[in-house]
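Q: Could you fold this chain for me?
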Amino acid sequence: MALEFNGRLELENEMINYHRTPEQREGLRQRMTINMTGKRIGLLVVIRQDGYAKNRQAMWQCLCDCGTTTTVNGSSLRRGDVVSCGCYNRGKSKKNGKWKSKIHGMCGTPEYRLWDWAKVRARKQAISFNLQISDIIIPLYCPVLKISLKNNIKTCSDNSPTIDRINPSLGYIKGNVCVISHKANSIKRNATIGDLEKIIEYMRNGAGTALEREAI
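A: Sure. Below is the predicted structure, expressed as structure tokens.
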């Protein structure tokens, strides 16, 4: 059995000392357990320890990027034998004689493209990101401008769906994102509420007066 840190051999030897009480053996087992909480392995993020298997291996509850919760033993996680809830393997398809990975079976979908784009952008800007693909919900119409949304793969147009951070000071996190049109996002991106109010005032007053003079 591979040792994970100095002194583990002594602890393991103590574990098989049957003269110890169950409480003492449980305490030694907890001391031997390597804390995996918060670690990311592939598509999995370790949430918490979930007891022990019959072979005394620590079991860990993990959250997959697809939103599924699964329980994996610590050794499999550390070796990289398990990197998803199983969705990664289920999402593989054979094309042109080669295996092509389709993570979650959603690779290539509009939701996946928006999710992946947000993840890359968050990494470049060093801001928080904890979205799952299931958090990306594309409505039929832009909630701001009420125009229909169209998933244009090759080009980005006014009615292409984009992810908006509701509060720009926060990252791409749950509860802070909404899918709106590219046009609405472009208007909002660099403007404050005050800026937008001034533009509205200008369009209602100054621009309208100028148009009236031009008509005369």
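A (continued): The first strand starts at residue 40 and ends at 41.
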